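Each lists sequence, tokenised fold; shown next:
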Amino acid sequence: MRDLRARGFTLIELLVVVAIILIIAAIAIPNLVRSRIAANQASAVESLRMINVSEASYATTYGVGYSATLQQLGPPAPGAPVTASAAGLLDSVVASGSKSGYGFVYSPAYLDAQGHFNGYTATGNPLQPGITGITYYFTDQTSVIRANTSGTASASDSAVAN
């Protein structure tokens, strides 16, 4: 006779619960990955917008054209004053060249006779294509952000919708 006070789960019941958990995980994990990629890409676009705004402010404030590096747009050392070499216009994470799975490459352009840069380009590329992002971004002194899903973006690619 079976003792009615004995409680527990059978092996079949445990296997059914594990199977249900695996099915739910199989559905949820791809959605989580897509959400993470979408968030990284939105962060990359916003970072390029911040670079564009910071460059416009830098050129207006200092009257020496655009900055030579992203680091010049970043914050000064603690206690140090804001200067053209540490303008405090861009957060230190973006100024370092990497944020949310994207790497940012900045290049000044169009050096004039006074030694001022009258243009720049900036790209945002996924650090691990397909994992941290699938879209490549480009912007320049026009402040138009452009995107490409097949490789490094350029001025000839389509603009990102605002």
Strands lie at 98-99, 102-111, 117-126, 136-140, 146-148, 158-159. The two ends are 73 Å apart (CA to CA).
